[in-house]
Amino acid sequence: MIDGLTFAALSGAFLGVDWTTWKVVGWLGNICFFTRFAVQWYATERRQQVVVPSAFWWLSLTGCLCLLSYACFETRNAIFIFANAFSWIPYMRNLVIHHRSRRAARSCACGLRSPVHAIYCAQCGAKLPE
Ligand SMILES: [Zn+2]
Fold first, then answer.
1. Is residue 47 one of the residues assigned to a domain?
2. Please, are residues 91 and 68 in contact by the beta-carbon 8 Å criterion?
3. Which domain holds residue 16?
4. From CA 89, how far away is CA 96, in angstroms rounded?
5. What's the rounded Cα separation, in Å, for the pair 89 and 67?
6. Which site among 20, 25, 100, 130 is 20 to 30 Å from 7 CA-CA?
7. What's the domain count of the chain?
8. Cα of 112 to ligand 1 centre, how many Å?
9. Residue 12 lies in a domain
10. How close are the terminal C-alpha atoms of the chain, in Å?
11. Does 72 reside within a domain?
């Protein structure tokens, strides 16, 4: 037995929208873009300093690619395509830099990993090995 909500979802009309695969992808892109602000805000409040975690860049990249796909395959709107065609470049670059700096981080005996240029551990104050 199919209830009304299931029937509406299966027939392609849900919440008054005729859903297509690309509309779902487009909305996922919007959700990623919205969520990245919450992630960045939470990380900043938690540390009480401005922080841009790698999750922010992953959500930005995913959102950008979803919206670019939606623009290319659903709307075919040149303005929308152009708006998302190049923004993935700084997102990728920031992810590469983030990965490299994390790999180059220096370890302390207490377990905290510090930036490569740090002299002392921010957690225990010990001098980091050269
Ligand atoms: Zn330490």
1. yes
2. no
3. 4-85
4. 11
5. 15
6. 25
7. 1
8. 6
9. yes
10. 69
11. yes
pTM comes to 0.76
SS3 assignment, position 48: coil
Residues 6+ apart with CB under 8 A from 118: 106, 128
> Along the 130 residues of the chain, how does pLDDT read in single tens digits?
566 656 555 555 777 778 899 999 999 999 999 999 999 999 999 999 999 999 999 999 999 999 999 999 999 999 999 999 999 999 999 999 999 988 888 889 999 988 888 999 999 999 998 7
User: Ligand 1 center to residue 101 CA distance, Å?
Assistant: 18
CA of 66 to the centre of ligand 1 (A): 41
In a domain? residue 26: yes
